[in-house]
Amino acid sequence: MALSAAAANEAASAGALERLVDATRPGMERVNAMILDRARSHVELVPEIARYLIDAGGKRLRPMLTIASSLLFGRLNGSEVNFAAAVEFLHNATLLHDDVVDESSMRRGRAAARMKWGNQASVLVGDFLLGQAFMMMVETGSIPALEVISKAATVIAEGEVLQLSKTRDLTATAEDYNDVIRAKTAMLFEAATEVGAMAGGADAAGRRAMREYGRELGYAFQLVDDVLDFRGEAGTLGKNTGDDLREGKMTLPIITTLGVASPAERELIVSVLGNARTGAADIAAVVAVLDRHGALDRTLEQASTHARHAREALKSLPPSEMKALLGDVAEFTVMRAY
């Protein structure tokens, strides 16, 4: 029996990440080699910490998107490898810094670097990775691409400060949350796909399309992550369930629920928000409140809207297998929550 259109789309998006890995494998092999090479230093502690984070794996979705975006336009000049490695180094630098700011104990399923080497070393190695990222960009000689990555680094830092200022802020709004994830997450996705398009020889319209695709994909990705913080499992999340709540982060499910919760429900949420000792039973109680008000489902609906916008951003580009695959990747981003 033939699959329905919806079922066919679901089947295609379910394998999107694996197909993206296969499609970008040759380029990513070169990227991974560059990453390992640029993690070297004569200061022993630097490569030790850098390799600890890099070897932990992760999907490396952002550099894969850079390679995929370059392949989409097809006029590669080799700079896509430097761009993708720089994107990954920038991402890993923010992870090291984030874990210090958030006092996180886990990252990618094991102890965060700060738990092994301390906050000071983690921050400084993060700075090393940032420096290496910019060196790799400079080596390409592309000032426009360097401008894109430099802007991303600046905006991400602003997003971190904004999120910190909104920690446990009960007056935070959905607009505040949108500003945070625009800067913290969507900006790097946007930069990753735009510089990839540039490496592939895209014109101004192509760059604009990929910039919009990356931005919308980043929004969807973060919204789903915020739902998984409540619904996911620690083994698959790579961190503890409920960590955002313990760290006092004002994510969309919390913000929307606080606006409609009963006094008792609000008191429960406020009592655990920012409390590092919050246990599994309290997290479960908060999740029950969120579900009662449909906050998690509404957040996923918003993620689906952004994923649809990401697909729509590709419409102006010529048909190709890579274009179809990137559309499926947008759908996959939301399907992670199901």
Mean pLDDT rating:
91
Second-tier CATH architecture: Orthogonal Bundle
Radius of gyration: 20 Å
- Helix coverage percent of residues? over 70%
Q: What's the total number of strands?
A: 2
- Tally of DSSP helical segments: 17
Full CATH superfamily name: Farnesyl Diphosphate Synthase
Strand arrangement across the biggest beta sheet: 1-2
SSE pattern, N- to C-terminal: HHHHHEEHHHHHHHHHHHH
| Shape field | globular
Structural class category? mainly alpha
Question: Could you say what the CATH topology is called?
Answer: Farnesyl Diphosphate Synthase
Beta fraction of the residues? under 5%
Q: The biggest beta sheet, please?
A: 2 strands, antiparallel
How many domains make up the coordinates?
1
Low-confidence stretches: 1-8
Gap between N and C termini, in Å?
24 Å
Topology:
Elements: H1 5-14, H2 16-38, H3 45-55, H4 61-73, H5 79-102, E1 106-107, E2 110-111, H6 113-117, H7 119-140, H8 143-165, H9 174-199, H10 204-231, H11 234-237, H12 243-246, H13 252-258, H14 263-272, H15 280-292, H16 295-313, H17 321-335
Antiparallel strand pairs: 1-2
Helix pairs in contact: 1-17, 2-4, 2-5, 2-17, 3-7, 4-5, 4-9, 5-7, 5-8, 5-9, 7-8, 8-9, 9-10, 10-16, 13-16, 14-15, 16-17
Keywords for this structure?
mainly alpha; two-stranded antiparallel ribbon; Farnesyl Diphosphate Synthase; globular; single chain
Question: In brief, what are we looking at here?
Answer:
The chain has 338 residues and is an all-alpha fold. The protein has 17 helices and 2 strands.
